[in-house]
Amino acid sequence: MFNVVIEPFIPVTYHGESQPRHISITQLIIDAHLIVDVHGPSPVAESGLLRLLYAFTWRIATRIAPDLADIDLACDEPRTWFKVRNDLLEAGRFPPEAIDEYFTASGHCWDLVDNKRPFLQDKRLADDCVSKTTKKVKGQKQSTTTPVTSGINKLEFERRSGNNEMLLFSHHTNHNPTPLSLDEGFWAILSQLNYAAGGKNTPRVISSGVAKSEAFNAPARRGISFHPWGKNLYTTLIAGLPAFDDTFGRPDPHLPFPWETADVAPVGPQLEPVWPHSAWTRSWTHAVLLVPDSNRTSFIDGYLTTAVTKNIKGAPDPYMVWEEKKNDTAPRKMSTGRALWRELDAVLTVAPRRRQPSVITDLAKLPSTLRSQFGIRTYALASDQARNDQWDSVTFPGLTHYLEQSDPTAAGRFARTVMIIEQVGRTLERVAYNTWVAISGNSTRKNESGSAPWKMLTEPVMAAYWEHAENLFWSHISTNDDDTVWNAVVRSAFESLASLLHHHRRTHPGAAALADAWSRLWAEKPRQPKRS
User: Fold this and answer.
1) Quick check: 530 pLDDT over 60?
2) DSSP state of 529
3) CB atoms within 10 A of CB 70
4) Sign of CA dihedral 346, 241, 13, 196
5) What is the pTM of this model?
6) CATH code of the domain covering residue 511
């Protein structure tokens, strides 16, 4: 048995301590007011844990403050609903008896290796993921079925498996896969349910012998997640509970979570959006089952396949930035090599055809003394359909001052600083290319091998620029003078280029190219940066 709420395997940092302790989920929630951070083995695992903790928090918080789950209040009296939530924040901690009451309630299954209801897993996969062969024996047809597993490497997010050309992989092979410990299995399940790739997965027989292998991207894979991050884990979890709005579909705050019911959702179209469950568990598109060894001390195999046959348009994830694209909306995604601070203006400021994460804008409903205690934690995965390129997690403290719903003037300065830095970056990339052509005499975009020789200059120039730009960003977001920001950013951009060409400064082509670069960088100064 591995009870996920009792086993002490979650790394956390307590206030005043530098080294993490490993504690149980139950103890984590009891001590949430003393804990400043929670750690996962990777950003995707940690992000999955945070969403799970929100669900636990919801159940415990609604025991303390039943009005939080009052549908009429949530739908028709949002100001009163926020007052209930704010009162919880000011209470400062969870009562231990409410925590114990929830985690010991009958009917909940917390065992990761339970024979009938393994935690967050679908036991049906052992029967659904099979191959059927028919052969004649003594003139009669006989059919046999053989389990078709995904392999344990497929379940572990950091391992390479099959055709997954993962750049974030450890050195494991399918020929002799290393088993997962039980706690590693827990993290693997959370990672896959929230971040698994769509496309071809292990085939699953869904009805009348029809097998389906195509899956849809897991919900958190679709974009960057932004979470309120308080002075301790208690405030972080309470502030992360999203308020109801019409985009959520119907409210049903008492709907059972997967571990609260023996009923497993039937395989069919994706479940309709429901508040608040769609933010945490109801939008999952994959089904997982880990296979333990005979002693139930590790996982040696597993299944990862589709849980839905049709992807419906769900509620916008309250932790993501949503942007209008053509006739649809989509979450903002992480781009490989793009630092997450460059996404903050979309989180904090208002713009046409863009929706801020609602849990961040909800911070404006807090009293200023509480609001100032919050920062923003980000989780992101840069990926294509089959490959995971880069993941990242960053905490940005003290940014709620720049939230447009709280201080439009400060938000405007914040947005202008970001836009100046972005505009100079675009200009610098063009200027660096022109400089390469002037010095090398080679204007070829791609050579015979398909490579772009000019990137030998532009890529290190841009890397240097963005590294310096982050420091400029933090030192100028409160500057009220665009000229001051512009001058500092342009000079930094030129130095990023010139420092890589110091050997060419004394040559005529090099000196001329750098003089031209200097002029071009200054020439595109906007009179009034426009917010997009």
Assistant:
1) no
2) P
3) 18
4) negative
5) 0.91
6) 1.10.132
Cβ within 8 Å of residue 39, ≥6 positions away:
11, 12, 13, 20, 46
Average pLDDT rounded to a whole number, residues 451-460: 83
Helices 43-64, 78-91: axis angle to 10 degrees equals: 100
Q: What range does the domain containing 502 cover?
A: 408-523
What radius of gyration do the chain's Cα atoms show?
26
The length of the chain, given as a count of residues: 532
Q: What angle do helix axes 96-103 and 43-64 make, rounded to 10 degrees?
A: 110
Answer for the pair 386, 199: CB distance below 8 angstroms, yes or no: yes
Pairing type for strands 250-251 and 274-275 reads: parallel
Instruction: Please report the pLDDT score of residue 526 as a whole number.
Output: 65
**280 lies in some domain:** no
478 lies in a domain?
yes
Can you read off the two tokens belonging to residue 247? Answer: 């985009």
Q: Residue 171 domain-assigned?
A: no
**Helix-, strand-, coil-residue percentages of the chain, each rounded to 5:** 40, 20, 40
In sequence order, the 6+-apart residues with CB closer than 8 A to the CB of 67 are: 73, 80, 81, 84
Comparing 448 with 272, the larger pLDDT belongs to 272
Are 470 and 339 in contact by the 8 Å Cβ rule? The answer is: yes
For 351-393, the pLDDT digits (tens) are 999 999 999 999 999 988 889 999 999 999 987 666 777 889 9
